[in-house]
Amino acid sequence: MFLYFKAVLGLLAATLAAAESTGNFSIPLTRRQDTALLGSDQTETFSSDFNHVVIKYSTAFENYFRNMGKQHHLQVGQLLKRGDEGSVGLRNVDNGLLWTGHVQFGSPPQSIYVDFDTGSADTLVNPGAYKPGSSLSSHNTNKSFSNTYGDGRKANGTIYTDKFSIGDINGKHVAIGLAKKDFIASRESPNKGISGLSMPSIQTFPSAYKPFFQTLRDQGAVSQGIFQFTIKTGSGSSLHLGGIDSSKYTGSITWVDFDPSDGFYVAPASINGKEIRTIIDSGTSLIIGPPSEVKDVLQSIDGVTISDQQGQIMATFPCNKNPKVNIKYGSKTFPLANTHLKQNSTTCVLPVMGRSGLPMKAWIMGDPFFQSASVIFDQEKNRLGFAKQA
Fold first, then answer.
1. Are 314 and 304 in contact (CB under 8 A)?
2. Cα separation of 184 and 178, whole Å?
3. What is the pLDDT of residues 223-234, one digit of tens each?
4. Which of 26, 98, 107, 318 has the most neighbouring CB atoms within 10 Å?
5. Is 117 marked active-site?
């Protein structure tokens, strides 16, 4: 994306912590914006965003095949081949939003900032972010992991389990993968890892070591198996764990079922009237879809100029205009809240893009949609809730 954003978690005041009941905790997120433009020609920047998606979903499909013994029904074609060290040359892969939050592992607790991601399943951290030798409750499983991060870097290392806390929520024997080499770049500081919130069928870890929220559910550490993202264009962003924070939305919630065996949160939707299939992914910075479908949608929008550069579909428009993009889930329509990605002083780009060669036959609903709704992930009833932000 053109502007580099990062969501950085601030520690809660004691009064807020006291107001939350055990197993039901709301994490405030604060956005930091870097207004420095990355250059007038952003084609390479968007190419890196697309390649991030290709690598991420290729890895998830590989995990699904290993875990489930069959190809994922959303997979298209052959998966990307990668070397042990990751040979994909990219830049600016961390442009966009990282929902970085503060968690604690160990006893005494060790604080770690991680990127909360509904499009992946495991908790992985850089070397030094977690020190098992300093924790009295650390357990070395003697199991190894190998994963590929979004820019092609390999994350290889050892799986540990330890005590875990986030706010007033406490768990034990929660899995954390400690990498041998940095896979999170230093420019992403204070983020030192990634913590997945998806379902187990796409996890890298062996099945005995479930995603952290699944483990908290199994142990009864959360009041309900529900979490809620509310990402606002201004202040007031939050991730709520263990229930629904009714103060974050107005009106009613519209519910759409998902199949937990998919691993991803897959739901039908429409965009400007076109019926599509979507994956709700907090770890992706754009809305990305198959090029032919994206082109159909862009052609329905007045005042934009569509370009197709080697299968990369995007639309530009004068920054003083407001293109209309409406996304519908269930019975509710959500106008895209932030359609302006600045390319230069006068030209903006719509954050709805297409690319040939994607490994999935679905749209990825990333950050621009999260800024437009309060999104509820109900793992107990296998449904997704969408409501208008308060």
1. no
2. 12
3. 999 999 998 876
4. 98
5. yes
Our measurement of the distance from residue 73's CA atom to the centroid of its chain's CA atoms, rounded to an integer in Å, reads 21
Q: What does residue 161 show for φ and ψ, rounded to 5 degrees?
A: -125, 150
Upstream peptide bond of 28 is cis (omega within 30 degrees of 0) = no
Q: Is 367 a catalytic residue?
A: no
Q: 103 is written with which tokens?
A: 């968690």
What integer pLDDT is reported at residue 90 of this predicted model?
20
The more confident residue out of 278 and 103 is: 278
**Which SS3 state, helix, strand or coil, does residue 292 take?**
helix
Q: What is the DSSP letter of 246?
A: G
Q: For residue 124, give the amino acid letter.
A: L
Q: Indicate if the pLDDT at residue 379 is higher than 90.
A: yes
Question: Which pLDDT does position 335 carry in this prediction?
Answer: 96
User: Is the pLDDT confidence value at 66 over 60?
Assistant: yes
**Which ranges in the chain are annotated with CATH 2.40.70.10?**
4-230, 257-389
User: Which helix (DSSP H) or strand (DSSP E) does residue 213 occupy?
Assistant: helix 212-218
Report which secondary-structure segment, H or E, holds 17. helix 14-19
Find residue 101's DSSP bridge partners.
114
Active-site hit among 94, 245, 262, 281: 281
Catalytic residue, from 49, 115, 117, 162: name it. 117
- In the chain, pLDDT over 70 holds for what percent of residues? 83
CATH architecture classification, 4-230: Beta Barrel (2.40)
In this prediction, residue 29 carries a pLDDT of 63
The 3-state secondary structure of 55-82 reads HHHHHHHHHHHHHHCCCCCCECCCCCCC
Instruction: Check if CATH label 2.40.70.10 holds for domain 257-389.
Output: yes
